[in-house]
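User: I'm curious whether this sequence folds into something compact or stays loose and floppy. Could you predict its structure so I can see for myself?
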Amino acid sequence: MAEQLWIDVDRYAVGHLHESDPALEEVLSRSAAAGLPAIHVSPCHGKMLYLLARAMGASRILEIGTLGAYSTIWLARALPPGGRVITLEANPRHAEIARGNIALAGLESVVEIRLGRALDTLPRLETEQAGPFDLFFIDADKEHIADYFDWAVRLSRPGSLILVDNVVREGEVLDGESGDPAVQGVRRFVERAARDSRVSATVIQTVGVKKHDGFAMAVVGGG
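Assistant: Here's the prediction. I'll summarize afterward.
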């Protein structure tokens, strides 16, 4: 009963506050037809990313974990003129589908997909002086998100916003004895962020079509 209520509220919000978006609907349809797992952000969370990026005027955005580029497209649509999204994807098949979806949305001129393990790609971004980035969205394998977070801080500036998805995991984050590597990865991230004096962070629980989960938000130099 509770889960159905969460879903219905999400649908109510989308029905009233989201305009019809054939491109994003086609992106989801193509991704499903290609067999990608349905682990993309929800429409409400996608628009939240868009609104946050717009509100802070983010012109350089780094995403870790592209999948089918659904969240990438939300972020890229928020860019001001001259802005750019770099998105990192380890799976060649996912990257191929994402490229097609980005082209479908007409955003190939402002989005760059970097193929390879993020822990290999992130040092290259630092070497290239690709940053600092204004906004980071981390939505990749949870085992390594503490390391991704460290890299985000290294590639940031004062005031940069770091968002990390799927950190509640239906409450399993509370289980310090969990054998799930994703849960342990989230716990390492939360504990590391708590010790990092360079950021101010919190966790927001969410419910909806993605069930009970949540995201972390950190501001660099937040005090």
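Summary: The CA atoms of residues 89 and 123 lie 15 Å apart. The radius of gyration is 17 Å.
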